[in-house]
Amino acid sequence: MTVMRKRFSSVCSSSSAEEDSASLFDSASFFAADPINEGEHPYASLLCCHRVQDSLLSSNSSFTGYRGILNWIIIFLVLTHAHLFLENFIQHGFLIDVKKVLEHLIEDNCNWPSVNLILAANMFALIALLLERAQDKGMLSPTNGHHLHLGNMGLLLLFPAAVIIHEPTISTGGAFFSLWFYTVLGMKLYSYQETNRWYRQATDAEIGKNVSITQKASTEHLTLQDLYYFLLAPTLCYQRDFPCTPKVRVNKLLPRLLEMVIVIQIMVGIVQQWIEPIFQRSENFFSSMDITMRVEHLVELVAPTHFLWLLFFFLSHSYLNICAELLRFGDRHFYGDWWNATTLIIFWKNWNIPFQKWCHRHVYTRLVEKNVSPSRAELLVFLMSAALCEYMIALPLHSCRLWIFLMMVFELLVAVFLGGYFQGNYGNGLVWLCLLLGPPLAMTTYFHNHYISCHHHPQSSSSPLTSDHRLPGRVFLQPH
């Protein structure tokens, strides 16, 4: 009996080793018996049915087939939010009205200050082109040309801010679009002048070249066509001879246009049908609420705000691809797989590739060249981007609370102090948690205060920056 037990034990250990190297779901290897073992005992494969292995959901398991669980989560989320939408329609009725959005984008009078503001931006672009031509012909020294460029871009940044603050007839939508347009233009013109300066330095460094030929080749790129192609292209970094596709592909263009129309309609529906009723139930500014009401208000806004943020990303994807297709712009790497980011730093590097390239090329590299440590240069670039996000939201709404800036700084602290403890799937979960409770939610609180200022006129706030007479015209969310 002892000998037989040892024999079965050896058979079980050998069969267990073989099963470890074979697939668990291979029916042939799972049910078929080893001929050698069958020779010792015909029921050895049936008697030995256990082996050393971990549960599939344990951390030691190498199992990765979670597709079924992902499908269950998607279906569950769809059904849950379908119930919320149905409850919302029953309680509030149908609130979606695209005409209100169009009314908000149209100015209060026939002067159209936002349109005139955008048209005036051509003046700054033409000045940049003239300064580059003057430097290329030797009429202007590189130092004086650089200073004049900086003065031109300083006026470019101050001009829209002054108009938005002091022009009462400009709408909120017009102010947002104008400020976004001028900010992008300023970054493009900075890259334009700095890249052309690098080209001139490379040309001057060449030895044994014909000077007239190099000057002619340089002058060929300093044209209105080259400048405006760059200004319209979906990139912030200038270079000569952008990579281009052979032709405009209509089969790629039409789906993107359809996507933009559908996504805009969904975004308008979420704002008017979901977010506006939440704003209507509040009568105080977010900063004047007690802690319980503040938390409840934020919890209600998490889901719609996050959906809007995701839809805005997809809208940007469609818009940038439309611009690239119309201009035959070849570099379509506008974002990386940020949804798989395991750290916030990886997310920031993959979320907006054109902006990340511009910061690395024109800010980070220049700081490192001036003997700033790489870590400090990265910190300065991050703080600059956080301040820019705050500026883009706070100025059109005439309210500066620093909520977006502080939220991004808080995310930086989370990335620094908790990044080492959350890795892999846990790190990706932390990234998504920060996206749910991060800057998009802080941005929504700005719009909440703007809505309350224009509709309820609470007496609790005496700040001149948030009083009703300083706010422009209509708001995006108008109650029925």
UniProtKB/TrEMBL annotation:
Entry keyword annotation includes Transmembrane helix? yes
UniProt lists the family membership as follows: Belongs to the membrane-bound acyltransferase family. Sterol o-acyltransferase subfamily.
Cellular-component GO terms for this entry: endoplasmic reticulum membrane
Its transmembrane ranges are: 69-86, 112-131, 147-166, 172-190, 257-275, 307-327, 379-397, 403-422, 429-447
Kindly tell me the pathway this chain contributes to: Lipid metabolism
The record's InterPro entries line, in alphabetical order, gives: MBOAT_fam (IPR004299), Oat_ACAT_DAG_ARE (IPR014371)
Q: What's the protein called, per UniProt? A: O-acyltransferase
| Pfam families in UniProt | MBOAT
Q: Does the keyword Isomerase apply?
A: no
Question: Which PANTHER family does the entry link to?
Answer: DIACYLGLYCEROL O-ACYLTRANSFERASE 1, STEROL O-ACYLTRANSFERASE
Q: How does it sit in the membrane?
A: Multi-pass membrane protein
In alphabetical order, the GO MF annotations are: diacylglycerol O-acyltransferase activity
Q: Where in the cell is it found?
A: Endoplasmic reticulum membrane
* Gene Ontology biological-process annotations: triglyceride biosynthetic process
Keywords noted in UniProt: Acyltransferase, Endoplasmic reticulum, Membrane, Transferase, Transmembrane, Transmembrane helix
